[in-house]
Write a structure and sequence with these properties.
Layout lengths: L1 H9 L18 H6 L7 E4 L2 E4 L1 H11 L12 H31 L9 H20 L12 H15 L7 H11 L2 H12 L1
Antiparallel strand pairs: 1-2
């Protein structure tokens, strides 16, 4: 969803191809030839193939600089903040959620460790509180305008909600609601539901 959201924000023409990982489509030889990890998303742009959602978002922001998804090259400090919050999402905010998902339903039953769940929820809460402090008084994560960092943050906070993990600060809920109401995300969800 992150990549489709970004493509809709940019207004780019694209073909959406659904890969149902739960049906094993990510393990097919044809798909593994595109992404040996068997995961989504994958962006194919001509003869260039790129995996990992953050890399794809950054690539799209650089390819379509007018979109503002990635701060301009001449805004070094804003770009630094942008990269900081993108890294924070992956390493601090999302990682506990991924651990929760793995130990709830992704890993084989004999590899799941239920005792990890409480610790992972606590870790998420700590990271979410840091994020809440940063977002205090801000409409967007960096530079005073919407960017790919907001896509990453809002998507991750939405994931927490869907996993029934509470957000420790009401401002995070307000921010998330505002980001999730963006017309580009509405279009992305409609496109995904039709695939």
């Amino acid at each position: 969803m992150r990549v489709v959201w970004a493509l809709e924000e940019i207004g780019a023409e694209y073909e959406y191809v659904k890969v149902d990982l739960f049906k094993g489509e990510g393990r097919s030889p044809a798909y593994l030839a595109i992404n040996p990890a068997g995961k989504v998303p994958v962006l194919v742009d001509g003869d260039f193939t790129l995996t990992e959602s953050v890399a794809i978002l950054n690539y799209l922001g650089e390819k379509f600089p007018a979109s503002g998804l990635v701060p301009a090259l001449d805004k070094l400090q804003t770009r630094g903040e942008f990269h900081r919050w993108c890294c924070f999402v992956l390493s601090e905010l999302e990682q506990p959620l991924w651990n929760i998902a793995k130990h709830r339903f992704v890993l084989p039953q004999d590899k799941r460790v239920p005792a990890i769940l409480a610790t992972a929820e606590w870790e998420f809460g700590v990271a979410a509180q840091v994020l809440a402090g940063h977002l205090q008084g801000r409409d967007y994560a960096v530079g005073g305008c919407f960017s790919a960092a907001d896509i990453l943050i809002a998507h991750t906070l939405s994931w927490a909600r869907s996993a029934r993990i509470g957000l420790p600060d009401p401002e995070l809920g307000t921010y998330t609601d505002r980001m999730l109401a963006r017309p580009a995300l509405v279009r992305a969800r409609e496109r995904e539901s039709r695939a």
